[in-house]
Amino acid sequence: MVSSNGKWDWEISNKTSFWSHGVKELWLYRHLLQGMVRRHFLLYYHQTVLGPLWVLLQPILTLVTYMVVFNKLVGISTGGLPPVVFYASGIILWNFFSDSFTGTSSTFRENAEVFAKVYFPRIIMPVSVLSTHFLRFLIQLVMFLLVIVYYSVFQGLTLPFGVWMLAFPFAILFIGAMGLGLGLLFSVVTAKYRDMTNLVALGIRLLLFVTPVIYPLVAIPEKTRWIVQLNPLTPLFELFRLSLLGEGSLTPFQLLYSVLFTVLVLVGAVLFFNKQGDKLIDVI
Amino acid sequence: MPDVVIEVENLFKMYRLGTISTGSFRRDLQRWWTTYVLKKQDPYFQLDGEFNPAAQHQSILALQDINFQVRHGDVMGIIGSNGSGKSTLLKIISRIVRPTSGTVKGRGKISSLLEVGTGFHKELTGRENIYISGYILGMSKDEIRKKFDEIVAFSNVEKFIDTPVKRYSSGMYVRLAFAVAAHLEPDILIVDEVLAVGDADFQKKCLGKMREVSQHSGRTILFVSHSMQAVKTLCDKALWLNQGKLKAIGDVNSVVNKYLATTQQAKLKQHWHTPAEAPGNEWVRMKAVELVPHQEVFEEYLDIRTPLTVKFQFWNMQDDVLLSVGLHLFTSNGECIFNVPSPPAHCDKGIVEGECMIPGNFLNDGSYYISMVIVRDTSVELFNFNECLSFELEDYRENLQWYGKWWGAVRPKLPFRLKQAELILQ
User: Fold this and answer.
1) DSSP state of A101
2) What ipTM was reported for this prediction?
3) Residue A149 sits in which domain range?
4) Alpha helices, DSSP H only, in B25-169?
5) What residues have CB less than 8 Å from B357, skipping those under 6 apart?
6) How close B160 gets to chain A, by Cα (Å)?
7) Which value, in Å, is the radius of gyration of the alpha carbons in chain A?
8) Which band of pLDDT confidence, cut at 50, 70 and 90, is reported for residue B47?
C-alpha cells in the first residue's frame, strides 16, 4: 500500500446519504440541465405542423371547451370575474402543476436506461422537466397578462393595483414546488410499484375537481367547502387570483397551511429521492 | 498528485435472486402487515406458496472481497469470463450502483463509457446529440464547443450533422457516439467493450485513439474487453476476476497468460489401458490419442504460432493387413478444414502407432476438433473415431493495428512478396 494517505476526492460505499450532492457538483452539471430543457422543447414540437404555437394553442383550446361546457352548458358561476379571465388563470396554473407533477413522477421509468449506464446527479432530470414546464408556463402567463390588459382597457375590468399584486409570483413558486415535491415522491414509488402509475393518473384527474380551477372557492356551499380547503393547492390558486384580479377568498391561516405543506413535501421528497435513488437502479 | 488514484477495499456486492419485492404495492403492504404487525408467516414466501421458499434467501455474490489499487497512469485491463463480475465492478466504480459493503475511494474526475451512445435520442440531430451526450458524460459546454469540429471529423458524418440520428445508418450512429466519448478528458476513464462495434476501419481508429489517450496524456484507464489481444496491446496491467473473486492482478502478460491457460477447454489426451474398455470394434481398438504442442518457446497456452503433433496408438487384431489412417480437422461449427491420409503400412496383430504434425502459423484462431478414421486396403473404413481431440488456438498478431475477427479457416504464412516495381517519374 503506497501513499494511500492523503485526501480522497470521492468515496463510494453502501451508505446513501440524504444530501447526496454538494451544490458544487450540481453546478458542474448546469449545462446538462440546460441541455435537457432544450431537448424537451425540441422533442415536444418535433414533426408538428404548428410547432411552438402549441404552447399557446393548448390552453386556448382548453379555455374554449371550458367556456362551452362549464359556463354555457352547466352554468357554473365564475364570481365577479369574466369567465375568460377566470378560466384562463385556472387553466395555466393547473397545467403548470399537473404537467410538472406527472412529468417528474416518471423520472425513473423514463430514464432507466441512462441511469443504468452513466452517473450524474439524478435530480437533474426532474428539475429539467420542471424547468421546461416553468418556461412554458411563463409564455402562457404573458398571454394571460395580455388578456387581463385587454379586459381592463376594453371591458371595464377593474384591477386591484397595490402591494398584493406582488404576491402572485409566490403562488407560482409554491405551485411549482408542490408539483416537483409530489413528483419526486411518486417517481420513487412508481419505480418500485408499477401499479401506482395508475393511481397517479387517476389522482391527478380527481384533484382537478377539488381545486378551484373551474369554480371560485366561494361558489362551493359552506357545508362541503372544507373538502376543497383541505387541498393545499386551493389557497395558492386563490392567492394568484386575489393578487392579479382582486377576487379570491383566503385567510392567513390557510396560506400558512399551504406553505408549510409545500415546504415539508419538497424537502422530504428531495431527501427521499436522494436516499432511494441509488438503490433503485438495482430494481428498475 | 498522489500516486494511488483508486483504492478498492473489501468490496462486496450481493444480488438477490428472484423477485426483490412482490412488485405490487398492495401485496407488499399485505406482506408487511402479516409479517411485521400480525407476526405471521410471509404470505408470499410460503413453503407451498407461489414463490419458491429458497428464493427468498438465495442470493448471489457478484463480487466477493475485492481489494486492489490503481495508480496514476495505469492502463488496467479487467478480464474474466461472462458473469465473473467485471461489469458490476465497473458499475460500482462509476457510481451507478452501490456496493453491498466495502468502499471505493478515488481522486480526480471519473468518466465511464459502459455503452456507446448513452443519452442519444433518435429524434434529435447529430449536433444536438453531441451536446446532450457530452453533457451527460460530464463535459462542459466550452469543452464540447472546442472539440466539436474534431468530434465531427472523427466520426465522418459532416454531411449529416443536422439530420436526426434516426435516419443515420447504424455505422454512422455508432461512429458519432464513440466520437463524443473519445473526446472526453477525465482523469480516470472507464471503458467497457466499446471496441465490439463498427467496421474494421473504425475499430482501428478507436484503438488508435485509446492508445493515444493512454500513452500521451498519462491518463488512468480501466478497460474491460473479451479480446485478449486488445487487452495485451493497450494495457500494462491486468486484473482477472473469476466468479466474483479477484484471481490475479499484475503485469498484463502474466495475468492474461494465466487466464488463457485455464479457459482453453481442450481435450488434448485420451488413453485406454485394455482393449476391452477402449472404443473400437473387432478389428481395431484405440489405445491412445494425444495432441502434443511444441510450445516450449512460447506461452502457457496454444496460439496460432504453436506447432502441434497428433500422436496415436491402436491395437490391431488382424494379421497381414494394409492399414492407413485419415485425420480430419474440423472447426467448432463442423466445417472440415482438411482430411490428411497417412501412407499405408503392412501391419500384423499388435500395436500400431503413428503421428502427424500440424505446423504453426497455419491455422486461424478458434476452436477445432479432430476425428480419426482407420482404413483397410485404402478403401474399407474399419473404424471412425469422431471428435477424439479438441483444442483452441488463441490469436496472435504482430505489428497490426486491427483486432477484428480474422477471416478464414486457415491463416497460413505463405511466401508473399511485395515491392515497388516501377516509379512514375515526374
Assistant:
1) H
2) 0.81
3) 53-280
4) 25-32, 53-57, 86-93, 126-136, 141-155
5) B307, B308, B309, B310
6) 18
7) 21
8) very low
Domains and CATH numbers, chain B: 71-262 (3.40.50.300), 269-393 (2.70.50.60)
Listed residue (B298, B221, B214, B301) closest to B256, CA to CA: B301
C-alpha cell at B55: 428464493
Residue B361 is given by DSSP the state S
* Helix ranges restricted to H, B156-284: 170-182, 200-216, 228-234, 252-263
Does pTM top 0.80 for this prediction? no
pLDDT at B65 over 60: yes
* Domain count of the fold of chain A: 1
How would you list the strands of the sheet with B308-316, edge to edge? B269-271, B284-293, B308-316, B350-358
pLDDT of residue A30 exceeding 50, the answer is: yes
pLDDT on residue B172: 85
What number is the average pLDDT over the span B265-273? 79
The residue type of A209 is F
A5, A8, A194: best mutation site toward chain B, by most B Cβ within 10 Å? A8
Q: Looking at the complex, does the CB of residue A8 fall below 8 Å from at least one CB of chain B?
A: yes
- Distance, in Å, from the CA atom of A94 to the CA atom of A179, rounded to the nearest integer, reads 10
CB–CB contact B98 A14 (8 Å): yes
**pLDDT confidence bin for B55, thresholds 50/70/90:** very low
pLDDT (tens digit, 9 = 90+) per residue, A173-197? 999 999 999 999 999 988 888 788 8
Residues of B in contact with A3 (CB under 8 A): 2-4
Q: Hey, which residues 208-247 in chain A have their CB within 8 Å of chain B?
A: none
Quick one: three-class SS letters along B274-321? CHHHCCECCCEEEEEEEEEECCCCCCCCCECCCCEEEEEEEEECCCCE
Position A19 in a domain: no
How far is Cα B72 from Cα B3, in angstroms, rounded to an integer?
Answer: 6
